[in-house]
Specification:
The protein is an alpha+beta fold. The chain is built from nine helices and twelve strands. The strands form three sheets. A six-stranded antiparallel beta sheet has the order 2-7-8-4-3-6. A hairpin with a 2-residue loop joins strand 10 and strand 11 (about 310-320). Helix 4 (about 60-85) crosses helix 7 (about 160-180) and helix 6 (about 135-145) crosses helix 7. It is rod-shaped.
Amino acid sequence: MVFQNPDKKTAPPTGKEKGLSVESILSNAFVTAKRKAIPQDKKKLIKAEATPYSPNASQFPKEYRNILKQIGDYCAHKIQVSLKQYLRINIEVFWANMESSIFSDFISHLPSYSCIHILQSSVFQHPSLIVQNIPTISALMERVLGARILDKPTVLEFTSVDIAIVSKITSMITAEIEKAFQSIVPVSWRIHRHETNPMLASVIPDKENIVTMSFEMKGPFPPGTIHLCLAASDLLGHLEKYKKNQMSSQNKQQNALMKEQMKKIPVEVSIRLGEITLEYNDLMNLCVGDILKMDQPLFSPVSVYVEETPKYIGKLGKSQEYWACLIEKTVGSKK
């Protein structure tokens, strides 16, 4: 489905409508001739209605925001590499922020003329949205068509050809986001449709809590923002499962580390030949040469103590030039 503004006249059939591929469309000179620039007064209206979007991120649990921030940082780098290779320009993409609000607040703060792609995935109950600034995406589109100067792009009403180009760029962005999300949820999006009027992109219930991941894009073109809008209910279950798996993995690592550390702790092991009880007077009269008779017969088993606890029963002997003890059984064992 392609949305066209009510005041827009019907355009002649484009290359896409004739069944040509995107590659062949881009090679034809007639493409740029059919692109219609937006009047100056409408440009002013678009700029004036672009109010700041600043919902409350505290509604989303902090531990989940930290997880999404890590994903966002990774996404920004991968999107930058992908677009730089495709467009062959110096482009920078930064993780901006993660916000939480209800869907009606998000959609109402968008400019009245925006580049919106509605995404669908089998793993999410609700559709997702990718929203981009019109001046920014128009500059990238002109770059695809061969333009070299992008700082003052022509703001356009999209034809089906333009939508094909913009969808290609959006698909590259979503592909990198999908890769980053694989550790949490194996999401795979497809572009359901493109809209420019935010009111026609109200595909999520107005009161539904959403999460918005935002990226800043800079380069030799008007700077812009990429918003990824997701229903919070679609994410929470996957994030909770990911957190439990992560904690379980951390516990296993800690246990393994503790076992390794315990292996290196020195433990005192002693062998007791027997015991003897002396009266105090006999103890005071002990001198060199006296013989103490133990309570254990000669060659009888001896007790092996670990720290102060008897653990084994052994037999005394000799190994090379040293006294030795052969462990025969553990304390309490019948064998």
